[in-house]
Write a structure and sequence with these properties.
Helices cover 48% and strands 13% of the residues. The protein has 366 residues and is of the alpha/beta class. It folds into three domains: 157 residues, Rossmann fold, CATH 3.40.50.300; 70 residues, Helicase, Ruva Protein, domain 3, CATH 1.10.8.60; 66 residues, Winged helix-like DNA-binding domain superfamily/Winged helix DNA-binding domain (Arc Repressor Mutant, subunit A, Orthogonal Bundle). The strands form three sheets. The chain has a six-stranded parallel sheet, with helices on one face. The termini are far apart. Bound molecules: adenosine-5'-diphosphate and magnesium ion (MG). Magnesium ion binds next to helix 5.
Length: 366
């Protein structure tokens, strides 16, 4: 693995992590190319762009001021006490900057960062060997922590709380439990689905930080910053158009910027991105002015047309548009809910008056 930002990063089980990712998202690369999806579903291509554009310190990290403030205090206090920081839980929709924060925290602390994922840790032994390989002050980052299974969670609980690891040696009657001391590490966990974490697990974190969608101004700053890093000339209006279509999500903003650049290089003589080129590129990608893509509109149409406006369960929506429930819930829905085009009720999802208006459907349903 490459070293980033001075924090030495060892990727634990990255290979199996990638394998599982691919398995989770069959043909995700193909579907990105074929269906031109831009919602913040992370693909392998993104990892390259993410890495190239990832802010390396708090000053470069745009927005999320409250979280930055909190983290600076936590980090400052820990440094003063010469102690590792408390375990941290970062949650919020995909592409908002959780992984980036983990890198920045490690860099600020001058700590080693080890990265793994809830899907890569399958057995108690997997996490045991990672934990015993850590040193005092190291940071273990577990992405998609809601995917951890029970066996692994049971190892992590005492490790987080007492820095102890129970090891069972031998089998059957002769089995013995041995307790070993672990280094004083910090766990930073990230999840898009905090509701899937048990409350005892949640309560073991010293701080629980929720990342929210960015505002238009922040996204424009991110697009400008990325354009500079990628040596892309843009005009103000083009930046504003790209930002408006970015689902208030940095990963999407970066991805759109790159797509629009590719489009203008292919079609125009010019090297800079004009407002017209941005509009044309978005139209070609079937992304509308609010950043909705085909799948978003399919979800909304399913609720509006097939299920009479709802309420309808996620399962039925997923079946009717042949998309995975998890993808709808993690990738598409958060933004649609956020901008009020659909709503969640105890009985299921409903389309809102605004949602109908966006689809150009006359409001006879509500
Ligand atoms: N606050 C931010 N300022 C600038 N760029 C950001 C910010 N947050 C995220 N990004 C960009 O978006 C990409 C995706 O962020 P990442 O941390 O991987 O999101 P997550 O882990 O929440 O899915 C990063 O590589 C970075 O380029
Ligand atoms: Mg991430």
């Amino acid at each position: 693995m490459t070293r980033l930002y001075g924090a030495s990063e060892t990727s634990v089980g990255l290979e199996s992590y990638m394998k599982i990712k691919r398995h989770d998202n069959p043909g995700s690369n193909n579907s990105t190319a074929g269906r031109q999806e831009v919602a913040p579903k992370p693909t392998l291509d993104d990892q390259v762009l993410d890495r190239a554009l990832r802010p390396s310190n708090f000053d470069e990290y745009v927005g999320q001021d409250k979280i930055k403030e909190n983290l600076k205090i936590l980090i400052g206090a820990a440094k003063k006490r010469k102690e590792p920081i408390e375990h941290l839980l970062l949650h919020g929709p995909s592409g908002l900057g959780k992984t980036t924060l983990a890198y920045i925290i490690a860099k600020e602390l001058g700590a080693n960062l080890k990265i793994t994922s809830g899907t890569a840790l399958e057995k108690a032994g997997d996490v045991g060997s990672i934990l015993t390989g850590l040193s005092d002050g190291d940071i273990l980052f577990i992405d998609e922590v809601h995917r951890l299974n029970k066996a692994v969670e049971e190892v992590i609980y005492p490790a987080m709380e007492n820095f102890k690891l129970d090891i069972v040696i031998g089998k059957g009657n002769s089995a013995k439990t041995l307790q070993i001391d672990l280094p004083r590490f910090t766990l930073i966990a990230a999840t898009t689905k905090i509701s899937m974490l048990s409350s005892p697990f949640r309560s073991r974190f010293g701080a629980n930080l929720r990342l929210d969608f960015y505002n238009q101004g922040d996204i424009e700053r991110i697009v400008n910053r990325s354009a500079k890093l990628l040596s892309i000339d843009t005009d103000k209006e083009a930046v504003s158009i790209i930002s408006q279509a970015s689902r208030f999500t940095p990963r999407v903003a970066n991805r759109l910027l790159k797509r629009v650049r590719d489009y203008s290089q292919m079609t125009d003589e010019e090297t800079s991105i004009s407002a017209l080129a941005a509009k044309k590129a978005l139209a070609m990608l079937e992304i509308d002015d609010r950043g909705l893509e085909k799948t978003d509109r399919e979800i909304m149409h399913a609720i509006a047309d097939k299920f009479a406006g709802g309420p309808v369960g996620l399962k039925s929506i997923a079946a009717s548009i042949s998309e995975e429930e998890g993808t709808i819930e993690d990738v598409y829905e958060p933004y649609l809910l956020r901008i009020g085009l659909i709503a969640r009720t105890p009985k299921g999802r409903v389309i809102t008056a605004q949602g109908l208006k966006h689809l150009g459907i006359k409001n006879t349903l509500l």
